[in-house]
Amino acid sequence: MASNSNREFSSNSVSMRISGNLNSKRKAISSDGRDQMPPPPSRENLNSSSPSSANTQTVASNFVSNEGTPNEGTPSPTSLACASKKVRSEVWVHFVKLKDDQGNETGRAKCVYCSKDYLANSEQGTSGLWKHLRDTCKKFPNKKEFVEAYKSRDKMQKILNFQKASESEKSKLSCWQFDQQACRDALVKMIIKDELPFQFVEGEGFREFIQVSLPMFQIPSRYTIARDCYYLFVQEKKKLHALLTSQCQRVSLTTDTWTSIQNVSYLCLTAHFIDSGWNLHKRILNFCVVKSHKGINIGNAIDFCMDEWGLNKVLCITVDNASSNDTAVQQLKKKLTKKNAFVLGGEAFHMRCFAHILQLVVKDGLESAQYSIRRIRDVVKYVRGSPQRLEMFKKCCESANIKSKASLQLDCPTRWNSTYLMLESAVVYQKAFDKLEDVDSKFLGEFGNDMPSEVDWTKARNLTRFLKRFYDVTCKISGSLYSTSNLYFPKIMRVLKDLQAFQSSNDLNLAEMGRMMREKFDKYWGSIQKMNVMLFIAVVLDPRYKMDYLAAKYKSFYYENDANDLVTRVTNSLRALMDEYKGNEQVGMGGVINPSNDVEDMVEDEELDDYFIEREKEQSLVSKGELDRYFGELPEKYTHDFDLLNWWKVNAVRYPILSKVAKDILAIQSSTVASESAFSTGGRTLDRFRSSLTPTTAEVLICCQDWLRSSSKPIQLEETIEDLESLESEITQDPEIVESVMPRTRVDC
Q: Which regions of 157-213 does DSSP assign to beta strands (E)?
């Protein structure tokens, strides 16, 4: 292993130090990996003045000579580097190997600045040459900067590292070297991604861990970490703005409002778009304070956020069915109409959330079963009320020979999906609840005649099967990492089919629920005029469906005339969209070529003008030709794993205009779940322990986490009962732990 004295340091490092691009130049200087850039300065130093790129080039050229040209009689450093094929050290930029009359190397090298020669064979190494540049050579330009950079270099030896960068990547061998700034940046990202408090860095446990694992790391204070989070937020925001500007045509938005534990109203605005590589993106743009949940305030807040990001081309915005959102959307339409930001005249700008409409539909159906649901909710709440009751219930499960390990879940009465999960988990333990009546006198005494009866359990089982269909549909339509707009219409037809089956059921309870739900269904989805036309176009742009599926499916539930009207509406809207996109493309390319108004020019270039006029006529039919060709081809084979975006990526060359339409429409979100999920993060960030965080800090943490996280999995902060029991069973397999710890946990109190 080479000693520290043999480490080389080239003039290129000086150039990079002077250029100020330190953060982007943290890499080895010599190809043998021994030389490293000096550690970067603090952000305060980065903000200070630094020489321009022109000055950098001047400094680099002055390494050859003060006049900017090579010394007379000596080759330039560039030619020297090219001539020496086998040399690796960058010291040969400043020295030339001497040769005898026969052209053989003499083992000596001459400085290109002062012409002094030194012994430089393979055994001697290059340490003496570097020392000459550093200490002896008086003609070496910018010697002071070179010496300072050499003294501040990182002398630590690299360490081989064999570790996965992430769970999805394979392990690979790499070289690691301690970098204070890189460690600090990684710490900031960990704080943001894992929702840790700023005070985490000052915790005793963390400091002890760093002292053992990485003692050379200087732990920053919580104030420094908070400041670094702001710096990172600004950097990531610039990147996202550049991505929105360069990679997408139009964006679709989702938004929702939320009130925090601080009693402050927040608005979350999320953008959805497909980039040039046909990858679907979801990015939280703003998590900002709104004065109230009134429609005017929501509309003003959204308009302000759009202006901040420079979003003038928005395809549609997805909101829930609150009346305040209707007011906000109408206000936005007035403002955006002045900017000419709409397609189809803003007809399809307002998108209603699928999940929220389905929530209203199912809620009406559950009204007739509320009595049975309440009884089951009460007994579940009783069992979960204390550890002693839960332990007694487990014994009842063992006595009833119930093998299920699922935990009892308590629902939120305002959310039907949580009610479904509660009933699904409770019906499995019906026999255990029956046995609990015999072993727990308080259980029977508390409920008396209000205990769930056999009729209640039968209703619960029927409800579970009934609600599962809607639960699966909701889960499928609520995704944000794949296209859901093409699924909207097929899932609506699936719900309608189920409702018709429930209405004709022999079970009077199910038939009544089906009737009540059908009334609410027709209120929002009963006719094509009540639905956004973009939802139908999205189905047509799925090559598995196309227009034939749309017409046939609608005809199976409604009149044939209604199906024909739907086909006409979708076709006309799609052609109008293609004309708009084609016009925008021509404007972007400099406009359409028009014949000259000058008669003399027309006569002079008559043949040329006729050519362009005919070509424009042909190009005006391109959109019609694309659409007819698309509909004329057979649909793709239906498979569940069909990659819709990849299909359009491959076929974009065949359908240049239609693919642009598809890129924007397939980014539309069918639900507001993407924005609502941010409130879960907000609830954890602004909990009762961190309720003093300012709204600006909350926005920095929540937005930055969304921009940084590569994983689509939500953060799991609460361990389930099954996880804890599995963990305990693994721990108890250790005899030492069982002997020293477990006896204390088994003592009867």
A: 159-163, 172-176
Whether pLDDT at 40 is above 80: no
How far apart CA 447 and CA 74 sit, in angstroms, is: 102
- Asked whether residue 238 carries a pLDDT value surpassing 90, the answer given is yes
Query: Which one-letter amino acid corresponds to residue 24?
Result: S
pTM of the model: 0.70
Q: With pLDDT > 90 as the criterion, what percentage of the chain qualifies?
A: 21
| HEC secondary structure over 583-610 | HHHHHHCCCCCCCCCCHHHHHHCHHHHH
One-letter amino acid identity for 415? R
Quickly tell me which residue has 């972007």 as its tokens.
588
Locate 593 and state its tokens.
Answer: 């070529």
Strand ranges for 168-237 from DSSP E? 172-176
The predicted structure's pLDDT at residue 663: 93
CA distance 426 to 531: 37
90 in Cβ contact with 29 (< 8 Å): yes
Which residues face 265 on adjacent strands? 259
Q: What is the mean pLDDT of residues 605-620?
A: 56
Please write the tens of the pLDDT for every residue from 482-518.
Answer: 888 999 999 999 999 988 888 888 888 888 888 888 9
Q: Return the structure tokens found at 304.
A: 């302000």
Please, are residues 214 and 178 in contact by the beta-carbon 8 Å criterion? yes
For β-strands 314-319 and 117-119, DSSP reports them as unpaired
Average predicted confidence (pLDDT) for the chain: 77
Question: Which stretch of 77-86, 224-233, 471-480 has the lowest confidence by average pLDDT?
Answer: 77-86
Q: Of 446, 324, 467, which Cα lies nearest the Cα of 378?
A: 446
Count the residues in the chain. 749
**Rounded to whole angstroms, how far apart are CA atoms 320 and 610?**
54
Kindly report the CA angle at 631 between 626 and 637, in degrees rounded to 5?
125
Cα-based torsion angle of the residue sequence 606, 609, 614, 616 in order, rounded to the nearest 10 degrees:
-170
Query: From the CA atom positions of the chain, what is the Rg in Å?
Result: 35
**Rounded to whole angstroms, how far apart are CA atoms 10 and 146?**
8
Place of tokens 């003399």: 600
**DSSP alpha helix (H) spans, 400-482:** 416-426, 430-439, 441-447, 454-477
Determine the Cα–Cα distance for residues 393 and 443; give it in Å rounded to an integer: 11
Strand ranges, E, within 215-293: 251-259, 265-274, 280-289
Query: Torsion angle, CA of 4/6/9/10, rounded to 10 degrees?
Result: -170
Residues 6 or more apart in contact with residue 51 via CB below 8 angstroms = 18, 19, 20, 59
pLDDT digits (tens, 9 = 90+) for 142-182: 787 777 776 665 556 677 776 665 555 666 777 778 888 99
Question: What pLDDT, on the 0 to 100 scale, is given for residue 252?
Answer: 92
33: left (phi over 0), alpha (psi -120 to 50) or beta: left
Place of tokens 């480490």: 7
Residues 698, 208: contact at Cβ < 8 Å? no
Place of tokens 């929220």: 356
Residues whose CB is less than 8 angstroms from the CB of residue 270 and which lie 6 or more positions away in sequence, other chains included: 253, 254, 255, 282, 283, 284, 285, 674, 675, 678
Give how far Cα 201 sits from Cα of 205, 222, 247, 647, Å: 9, 6, 38, 47
β strands within 530-623, DSSP E? none
Query: CA torsion 518→522→525→530, rounded to 10°?
Result: -170
Owner of token pair 């070509």: 615
Q: Are 374 and 693 in contact (CB under 8 A)?
A: no
Least confident residue range of 278-287, 310-319, 608-617: 608-617
Residue 286, beta-bridge partner list: 269
**From the centroid of its chain, how far is CA 158?**
34
Q: Which helix (H) or strand (E) holds 317?
A: strand 314-319
Q: How many helices (DSSP H) and strands (DSSP E) are in the chain? A: 33, 10
Nearest alpha-carbon partner for 201 in 40, 690, 210: 210
d(CA 366, CA 460): 11
